[in-house]
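Give me the fold.
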Amino acid sequence: MTTLTHFDAEGRAVMVDVSAKPVTARVATARCRVMMQAETLAVIRAGTAKKGDVLGTARLAGIMAAKRTSELIPLCHPLPIDAVQVELEAGAAAVEIAATVRTMGRTGVEMEALTAASVAALTVYDMCKAIDRGMRVEALRLVFKEGGASGTYESR
């Protein structure tokens, strides 16, 4: 079993020392979805939500969130983010969200990708809650990671 890296020998939370790691290209992709009524999806597709462009606003919120992850997650390293891509698609029963983050750094960008996807989902929820109180944010997960000593991880 792998030991937890964010605790010292006495069990206190610590920031992992990555200073000895080489700088390498890192990328991570996270996905989630916001389940909702068909009528709500129709409003999003038509661009008639009272608060404005739901998908465009959620995309920007996700990008901004990725850049501020270290301010939200106490033990995350602040990273020089090179690119953030947040894709939102209004499907049959949900808005599907995928967030990909890239950096050249000593540690991965999994938390930045997860934060981007979750904040984009929360933005969709916030912008549509007046018309659909039954929405659910579901299935937040890391689906791809590449770079560093751990190599590549992929899941769907």
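The chain is about 30% helix and 30% strand.
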